[in-house]
Amino acid sequence: MLDYFFAHPFLVSLLIVGFYCLYVAVLSILENRAITRLGSFCPRIRSYLPFGADIVYRMRHHAHNDTDIDFWEWLFAWSPHEHSKTVEVALARRRWIFTADPENIKAILATQFQDFGKGKQFHEDWKPFLGDSIFTTDGQQWHDSRQLIRPQLVKNRVADLKIFEKHAERLMTKIGGHGEVVDIAALFYRFTLDLTTDYLLGKSVDSLDNPQTEFASAFAEVQKVQSLITRSGELSALIPKGAYFRGLKVINAFVEPFIEQVLRLKVSDLEEKPSQSFLDALAATGTRDCNAIRDQVIAVLLAGRDTTAGTLSFTFKELSAQPEIVRKLRREILEKVGSSKLPTYEDLKSMPYLQHVINETLRLYPSVPYNVRRALHDTTLPTGGGPDGSQPVGILEGTDIGYAAISMQRREDLYPPPSADFPPASQYSPERWDKWTPKPWT
Ligand code: HEM
Ligand SMILES: *[C@@H]1O[C@H](CO)[C@@H](O)[C@H](O)[C@H]1NC(C)=O
Ligand SMILES: *[C@@H]1O[C@H](CO)[C@@H](O)[C@H](O)[C@H]1NC(C)=O
Questions:
Q1: Of these four, 121, 231, 373, 412, which has the most CB atoms within 10 Å of its CB?
Q2: Which residues cross the membrane (predicted)?
Q3: Which of 57, 67, 72 to probe ligand 2 with, by most ligand atoms within 8 A of CB?
Q4: What is the mean pLDDT of residues 133-150?
């Protein structure tokens, strides 16, 4: 019998493939039953290639083309329900849910916080870069990070604007010139790198003055590869990581001497230091673990830099096309601060138009436009399932949920009907905030 099979490799392969298909079929029947026991399915995206390769290809194409937002619109277009933007698809045998429904996002981030997290895979994928920091951990580890960082980011530590002023002044010297064209976004990214390194470590990388700093290029390269790793899921092993690890070496070699220097000081000396950096403040809590400190510093560097540079860039992009907004903003600045004095924290708090401008930027260009969480237990999402897309969705442990704040915040159907006071949601209009505040979650 065995001899017969070995003489016919074709039959053997056929048998193996057959058993594999049977195995997958049984597994998916069991999974479908388990999902149905918890809740419903959402509208399913059709894939025409095995493992959803066509969808992965489409996602990569849009990522390369800087048109992620169109990819997500394409995903949500699979929902036949007018007021539901929650869909699902199997990618490499894993079930993915994509959502831009406020009820579901609220559940993931707030009301069902315990059910969703980053998960072990994310922690592993990001470990070389962000270690065990606040961005890569769940549960107790996340909680510990939060306890450590939080006191360093409270008001009395961010209200000191001297450090902002120093780098803002340097930024201005790079803009100058009549009719000269500058890439303001590139300058903002250098500005916020200088600002955050100064704030965190007590020393700036000064990339505004030296655009080609090794640190800036290393940080950019590591972020680029890290994003590829995250998008590639199970296939991330195939991504070349040479530049990634070289970049990490540069980042660590820059940061570690500062940490070692701070750890040589006594807690009492650190507490008395007149101008404490974030790093000084962390070390003053008594933490002596160099790696733990490194992870938190890098995490806050990542968290604070791109968000701020992006928000500034999008604000200037909008202002450059709308001189009326510039005039109003300028008038408020001149009234509250004048043309020579430096603004104080209190000044900034008492400038409603400025706040409306920033709110309007974050509405159309949220700094974290897309994000992902993994189900940590079997659970449900409140809406998007069943025949009319309003039933709870069954979610098995390990299911990935991609959510798109940017798509949600651009949904016309979630806003008041357009009127004289309230332009269509797609329009950039700080004035809409005069008489409107979105309903908070809590
Ligand atoms: C325009 C400015 C900013 C926006 C819109 C923004 C937005 C966000 C969002 C949406 C998250 C949640 C991410 C997630 O759930 O995965 C987050 C987390 C975080 N951000 Fe920001 N951020 C900004 C600036 C900053 C700055 C300047 C810092 C610090 C200097 C910072 C520190 C953090 C930290 C530490 C977390 C993790 C919080 C946690 O997990 O408990 N962010 N931010
Ligand atoms: C890629 O980008 C170009 C220009 O930015 C745009 O015209 C084109 O439609 C995009 N293609 C896709 C598939 O999004
Ligand atoms: C800015 O947006 C937040 C979130 O929607 C809101 O709570 C706040 O009141 C807004 N600020 C102003 C000045 O309208």
A1: 373
A2: 6-30
A3: 67
A4: 93
Q: Please give the mean pLDDT across all residues of the chain.
A: 92
124 domain-assigned: no
CA dihedral of 348, 354, 356, 362, whole degrees rounded to 10: -90
What are the helix (H) ranges across 285-436?
290-321, 323-336, 345-349, 352-364, 405-409
Clarify whether residues 164 and 258 are in a common domain.
yes
Partner residues linked to 371 by β-bridges: 403
- If one residue of 355, 365, 439 were mutated to test the ligand 3 pocket, choosing by the most ligand atoms within 8 A of its CB, it would be 355
Residues with CB under 6 A from ligand 1: 134, 146, 149, 153, 300, 303-304, 307-308, 311, 362, 367-368, 371
pLDDT interval class at 2 (50, 70, 90): low
CB atoms within 10 A of CB 164: 16
Task: Give yes or no for a contact between 149 and 298, defined as CB atoms under 8 angstroms apart.
Answer: no
- Of 75, 32, 76, give the one whose Cα is nearest residue 56: 75
Ligand 3 mean position, distance from CA 358 (Å): 9
The answer to whether residues 299 and 181 belong to one domain is: yes
* Domain shared by 300 and 180, yes or no: yes
β partners of residue 116:
375
- Tell me: the pLDDT tens digits for 302-319? 999 999 999 999 999 999
338 inside domain: no
User: Are both 108 and 168 inside the same structural domain?
Assistant: no
323-379 per-position pLDDT tens digit: 999 999 999 999 999 999 989 989 999 999 999 999 999 999 999 999 999 999 999
Whether residue 178 is found in the same domain as residue 300: yes
Residue 133 resides in a domain: no
Q: Which of 276, 306, 336 is the last residue of a domain?
A: 306
Quick check: 442 pLDDT over 70?
no
pTM: 0.92
Nearest ligand, CA of residue 74? 2
